[in-house]
Structures are given as C-alpha cells and as structure tokens.
C-alpha cells in the first residue's frame, strides 16, 4: 500500500494532549492518529449478528436488512411515545 503524507496543525493545548496520549500508548503522534482513523472507519461498518444471520431467509419480504431495521426502530419509538 502506498503511503501519503499530510501536515496537521494543532493548537498548544491539543498538541500537549496528543503528546501525552502518544507517550501513554508508547507510539508516535502520527501513528496514534493513523490508528484512531482506522478504528473510526471500522465502526461505521454495520455487521449483521449471528442471530440475525440464522433467521435470514425465514421472513419472506422484498425489503433489505436496513429497511427492516428502520421499520422495527420506528415501531419501538411509536410504542414508547404512546406510553407517555
């Protein structure tokens, strides 16, 4: 994989925090930033749990997983709002 470099500017307070965090992690500030970006990128991936995978195919619907999930969330919100 090719590497690209960037220049990042911090104010004094932010730099001091970054420096302390890097020392605690025993890595350089650029390496720490790279790890944080990688972690943030992985959290945006939605993974389907084993339980959902087991029942997939049982429900006959033309909706995809995200549509079904949104529908369930809306139903829960409606139920919660009707309690108040």
Structural account:
This protein has 84 residues and is mainly α. Helices cover 64% and strands 0% of the residues. It has 4 helices and no strands. The radius of gyration is 22 Å and the shape is elongated. The mean pLDDT is 80.
Flag low-confidence runs: none
Backbone CA Rg: 22 Å
Mean pLDDT: 80
Number of strands: 0
Assess the beta-strand content as a share of residues: under 5%
Note the main sheet.
none
Which shape, going by the Cα principal axes? elongated
Helix count, per DSSP?
4
Helix content: 55-70%
Give the N-terminus to C-terminus distance in angstroms: 55 Å
By helix and strand content, what is the structural category?
mainly alpha
Order of helices and strands: HHHH
Characteristic key phrases:
64% helix; 4 helices; mainly alpha; single chain; elongated; 84 residues
Tell me briefly what this model is:
The protein is mainly alpha-helical. 64% of the residues lie in helices and 0% in strands.
Topology, element by element:
Elements: H1 12-25, H2 29-43, H3 50-55, H4 65-83
């Amino acid at each position: 994989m090719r590497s690209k470099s960037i220049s990042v500017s911090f104010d004094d307070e932010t730099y001091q925090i970054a420096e302390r965090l890097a020392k605690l992690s025993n890595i350089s500030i650029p390496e720490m930033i790279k790890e944080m970006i990688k972690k943030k990128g992985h959290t945006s991936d939605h993974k389907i749990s084993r339980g959902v995978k087991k029942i997939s195919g049982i429900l006959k619907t033309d909706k995809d997983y995200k549509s079904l999930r949104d529908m369930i969330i809306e139903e829960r919100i409606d139920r919660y709002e009707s309690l108040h």
